[in-house]
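WARN retry 2 of 3 for item q-0093 after timeout on previous attempt; input resubmitted unchanged.
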Amino acid sequence: MLVCLLGLLAAQGVSAVEGAALEPAPAAAAPAAAAAPVDARDALAKKEGDVDQAKLLKETLTAADKQYSMLKQGKFALTYDLTYTYIGQQKINAKFTDSTLTLFNIQNTNSHTITNTVSLDYGLRDNLTGTVTLPVVSKYSDSSTFRGMTNAFGDMSVGARWQPFELKRNAPSITTSGTLRLPTGRSPFEVNDGSSVATGSGYTSFTLGVNMSKVIDPVAIFGSLSGTASLPAKNLSQQQDGLILSSVHPGKSFSFGAGFAYALSYDISTTLSFQETISGRTLLKFQDGTSSNTSMQTSSVLNFGLGVRVSPVTTVNFSIGVGLTPDTPDFTMGMNMPLNF
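OK item q-0093 returned
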């Protein structure tokens, strides 16, 4: 069975993989990356008009994060992502004055978000790729304070990923990455309550990560680690429960993930991955000199992916994410495809 995996990723990343392993497939084994029900050797034979199998599997198995496939120097790649996210939550607001309950209400909030993202990759060197990402967000919110649709740009990001070591057949592939996210979206700290909803984070952040993958025929396993630090958002003047918010100091966050990819046939592959992010406390400062801290948050997502080859040069990827903690969206759905001109 031949497996040639050039790229694959876990929610926040999987490094590129190259190499081939050729061994006889057991009679009862399920078909792998490029096996056919009748004759695996015939199915693996490269036909006229077919893309290289390494490139095919790279596109198919990068449903969550296509950015970890290295481009040749001077080459461009344009990718389109469509993501739908649903958040449903119930908040209880209570306020005590002189040990007397003066405010108590329950707020039900439902949020539907559609994000269209275009990413441009450019090969700076064979092992160094630059990326620019621009999202456009359409968000519908239904709560006691606001009901309506907001359309605006999200947070733009620029970054690079670097493959420090040459790929070797029996060694894991390692890719490092750095991403700068800019607060180009509508800030949640500048939106007036009841007028609209935010489409961005409101502050600048920088993420460093490392991604590893290893082919264990016929499965590719991967894992990722990353850390994020953010700059404070200052010079604010937002009303918050009778106080005026002056600055926000986000806490640091740490993420890790793992998963595997398996090709069911020459045209279809599947992925399963888990991603968790732990975010530190955020400090809120007000104009009267008081301050408060939010609680730590833990976000966990279980992702299921399916890649379908629709032409010799195009693979469309679909994914579903299920939230596992209260700090995570209830579920997400996504589609990813290369834009070829």
